Amino acid sequence: MVNLEKELGGNEYPGRGIVIGRTADGNRAVIAYFIMGRSANSRNRVFVTDGDGIRTQAFDPSKMEDPSLIIYAPVRVYGNKTIVTNGDQTDTIYEGLDRQLTFEESLREREFEPDAPNYTPRISGVLHIEGGQYNYAMSILKSNHGDLSECQRFTFAYSNPRPGEGHFLHTYMGDGNPLPSFEGEPTPVALDEELLSSIDVFAERVWNALNEENRVSLFTRFIDLKTGAFESRIVNKNT
């Protein structure tokens, strides 16, 4: 179990990241999703609300060079399930659930991103809240150390997650050229009462822990496990 802020602060370039967990009082689910960027095209983005979810859009449309891989809906809600991903596989999962496929089955249609030489992993999460019960799953689709002939698929499922704990999955182990893909299981992170004393405190502290030069946007959400009601925050570097 690691401190989330220290984990973020110790990595200059984790890329895109998903945190899912449960508040210390056990009453709410927790989500954080952030994006970072090194190129002008990647940094020219903001999060905006889109129904019950969010989407990315160009901050300055006149400077948008290539919308592929950077314009998508990171968060969508399907009934009692909330989907969060780092790409347009959000739609793949949503449509798969609508066809009675599981989270894992839906993602079999996708692979890592075709952004040579990095071949960025696709990371995804889904939260299922029903009748006060809560579970979540996370997935990563990655190349075999840059070998395009193999897509490695890992899914991690967490049933009745413990209060005050969560998991952190991100795309890169750190900065580099090419960027080194994430390795291992999602990192267990502590979600203590101080960090989650309010959604505003949570958003502020996660944002401040991210590398100031590379951070682009952050989304956070708390979901009440009894009612399903949620509150969200968006932080954009470009305002």
What is this structure's SSE topology?
Layout: E1 2-3, H1 4-9, E2 17-22, E3 28-36, H2 40-43, E4 45-50, E5 53-58, E6 75-78, E7 81-85, H3 89-98, H4 103-107, E8 122-130, E9 133-144, E10 147-159, E11 165-170, E12 187-190, H5 199-209, E13 215-224, E14 230-236
Parallel strand pairs: 1-12
Antiparallel strand pairs: 2-3, 2-11, 3-13, 4-5, 6-7, 7-8, 8-9, 9-10, 11-12, 13-14
How far from one another are the termini?
A: 34 Å
Low-confidence stretches: none
- Widest beta sheet: strand line-up: 1-12-11-2-3-13-14
As a percent range, the share of strand residues is 35-45%
Q: What gyration radius follows from the Cα positions, in whole Å?
A: 17 Å
Overview of the structural elements:
A hairpin with a 2-residue loop joins strand 8 (122-130) and strand 9 (133-144). By secondary structure, this protein is an alpha+beta fold. Strands 1-12-11-2-3-13-14 form a seven-stranded mixed beta sheet. The chain has a five-stranded antiparallel beta sheet with strand order 6-7-8-9-10. Strands 4-5 form a two-stranded antiparallel ribbon. It has five helices and 14 strands.
Q: How would you sum up this structure in a few lines?
A:
This protein is α+β, with helices and mostly antiparallel strands and 239 residues long.
